[in-house]
Design a protein that fits this description.
Protein name: NAD(P)H-binding protein
Largest sheet: 7 strands, parallel
Distance between the termini: 47 Å
Structural class: alpha/beta
Strand order of the largest sheet: 3-2-1-4-5-6-8
InterPro entries: Ergot_Alk_Oxidoreductase, NAD(P)-bd_dom, NAD(P)-bd_dom_sf
Number of strands: 9
Strand content: 15-25%
Number of helices: 11
Organism: [Mycobacterium] burgundiense
Shape: globular
Radius of gyration: 19 Å
Helix content: 25-40%
Length: 281
Amino acid sequence: MPTETVLVLGATGKTGRRILPRLRLHGTAVRAASRTSPTPFDWSAPSGWDVALAGAAAVYIVAPPTTGPAHEFVARAEAAGVQRLVLLSGRGADTWGDSPFGLDMRDAEAAVRGSSLDWTILRPNNFNQNFDEDVFHAPLLSGELALPAGEVPEPFIDIEDVADVAAAVLTQPGRHTGMTYELSGPRAITFEESCELIARASGESITYKQVSPEEYAAILVEQGLGEDTAHHVAAMFVMMEQGLVTGAAAATDGVATVLGRPPRTFEDYVVRTAATGAWQR
């Protein structure tokens, strides 16, 4: 059985909390780290990083929300004897140009690539689970999802596939060194189609409305987000409409390359999630 320790940052987050049981089932020793975990970790508190890193052979990293900290963290990881880094980034991060969106992820990628450690970068599309666990959920419950997404389709990926890929990479030393995996679902769909599928499976009336980036930022501010954060999120949709985030909205073979099977479909996600009552009003 594997004896090395894997440090999972963001252990209570969307990907981290799914990766942990996969690693444990594999027999891997894990150290869960987050602001609320037994092993505390906060990107704004570097004084606690060395304790989290001590004795870890590999680290799963979710990029910090600002530029800069990833470089110091990677240097600390090298000094602590870490051997491998697996970074969660975003689809097509090197095609985002000078957009203010994703500077944190691109900075983290530069830190990882510039290290002397074995590294692998995971770049998923938007998660299916954003429709029931995150930013799109509340609007769906209100009956209307308003976004500045345009007509460019998105090959949404099931976060369970992302967790499967991350766990595989973390438990297969040497097989994925220096690789950047673009991860997507099997086909691209528009936000309007995603709403139609959710409406049909849930039996609820749900529509999609196209709004401008400025209108969307205002909606987010009304929901309680700060203005800078709201405009940052809106900038992502501007890039999506331009086809930059999704790489021309093409599906990739990243999941199949790592796992030897195709990714889960959006329809499969919708059926599973509708059964939980997540979209019932």
